[in-house]
Amino acid sequence: MEPHLSFRERRALVTGAGKGIGRAVAVALSRAGARVTALSRTAADLESLARECPGIETLCLDLADWEAVEAAVGAAGPFELLVNNAAVAELQSFLQVTRSALQRSLDVNFGAVLHVSQIVARQMIAQGLPGAIVNVSSQASKRALRDHAVYCSTKSALDMLSKVMAMELGPHKIRVNTVNPTVVMTDMGRINWSDPQKSAAMINRIPLGKFAEVDDVVNSILFLLSDKSAMTTGSSLMIDGGFLVS
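^ that's the sequence the OP posted. Answer follows.
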């Protein structure tokens, strides 16, 4: 993170903040001066995050529970910055997709983003606060991937939702963008892509010849949250090493 990206005293909510990208974003925002609320459904992850960054407030919620989210997020706000990072990836071939996997993916990858953004944006508007929302999408929203029928579809829907949000919230001085990473070397990413044959097939399609590191995504999110991107809304920032142009 560049030192001039300051978020001093700005209130930020990060979902899926227990692990990986969300956790790193929460920590980076806190260290840049933001007052961060980290949301996750895993209490142990939030407890360790609070020990790592004592200034971070935590919310332990299942985003599929709309009533609980409405009450807790509403009470915790208002926020000026929102990062919708929480997601699930239940990988199944098209012919094997189950109803439960479809519903869970729709609930978290799409429905929760819509719902949390509604709560936060309504408060921004009521308080007259300009704001920025970043939705964490994926290169999978742009390119079909084997065994990713539901994941690709929910991320594609998220991209279009973000564009509509940008259109409707722009007059209220609220910007909405997505980041669309390739494979990211989180702990889970390293496990899922540890097979050299599997990883080589993907890396060979990336002109830069590597997967993304967590900081690559964090720095892009911070840029889109910051005033450095004051004229950017409705955009998808590809963090894919050139995957889509190959």
